[in-house]
Write a structure and sequence with these properties.
Blueprint (H helix, E strand, L loop, with lengths): L2 E4 L1 H8 L8 E4 L6 H15 L4 E5 L6 H10 L1 E4 L15 E4 L9 H22 L2 E5 L2 H7 L3 H10 L5 E7 L14 H4 L3 E4 L5 H5 L9 H9 L3 E4 L2 E4 L1 E5 L4 E5 L2
Helix pairs in contact: 2-3, 4-6
Length: about 250
């Protein structure tokens, strides 16, 4: 694989090419800019493929970045699925499925209520097809909210009817208590973005990515550059396009 170095806007304008049914994975420790990157990619994919049904699943109780990006991309928040459309004078560009978090309930009950709604969203997108389903904080959604079987079905079978799954992860190795996201997140993805990571347990999961040299990828990921942007430390990203395969370094 040849290696290109691109700044973020150059990549989005000239190189980012999304086709219906392709799956995407972003892996990076917390605070590295996964959500920002995901929505940048989504905005350009929506421009390229305006017919796709877009839903972003939100397993968190609060996330200011998602609120900002929803407004920027014309996505409307809905607490339930399917969304209520009768009151809308014009359909939105897509949806953010954001169930309420009942903080008066124990964690198990609260997560189950959120998971019930999110599972409806994933399944609806998979069945409908011609869709992009984004799952930010995919570890939380898949393991704590019970979405793993639904996400796995989307990743394994979604390509046939144009249903793409986009996952953002901060801890690819999973946890002792709840396990990890389905391995199909790695083996089924066409587009993979990796941020800097020196945790060996995390890096070992990159061996599940097909068509690449895991030792080469691990070496690159350990050495990705860091940039201070405001109060955030943002990593350069290694982009893997497995259609080639190709790889590139993407700046902030």
């Amino acid at each position: 694989m040849s290696l290109l170095q691109l700044d973020r806007q150059e990549f989005l304008d000239e190189f980012w090419d999304y086709r219906p049914g392709e799956h995407l994975l972003i892996v990076e420790p917390t605070g590295g800019g996964k959500t920002h990157l995901m929505y940048q990619l989504l905005g350009e994919a929506m421009r390229q493929q305006p017919h796709l049904n877009v839903v972003s699943l939100m397993p968190k109780a609060a996330d200011p970045s998602t609120v900002e990006w929803a407004a920027a991309l014309g996505l409307r928040e809905t607490p339930s699925w399917p969304p209520r459309r009768k009151l809308l004078s014009q359909p939105p560009a897509g949806w953010v499925l954001w169930p309420p978090h009942r903080m008066d309930l124990p964690p198990e009950q609260r997560r189950e209520l959120v998971g019930q709604v999110l599972r409806k969203g994933v399944d609806g997108q998979y069945v409908k097809g011609s869709s992009i389903t984004c799952v930010d904080d995919a570890h939380s959604a898949a393991t704590m909210m019970g979405l793993n079987p639904y996400v796995e079905e989307l990743l394994v079978n979604g390509r046939a009817n144009g249903a793409g799954g986009w996952l953002a992860l901060q801890k690819p190795s999973g946890s002792v208590v709840s396990g990890g996201v389905t391995s199909f997140a790695y083996s089924s993805a066409t587009h993979i973005f990796l941020g800097r990571d020196n945790e060996e347990r995390n890096i070992r999961r990159f061996g599940e990515i097909g068509g690449i040299d895991p030792k080469e990828v691990a070496s690159i990921v350990r050495g990705l550059r860091l940039y201070q942007i405001g109060q955030h430390t943002v990593s350069e990203k290694l982009y893997l396009d497995l259609r080639g395969p190709y790889k590139a370094l993407i700046g902030p």
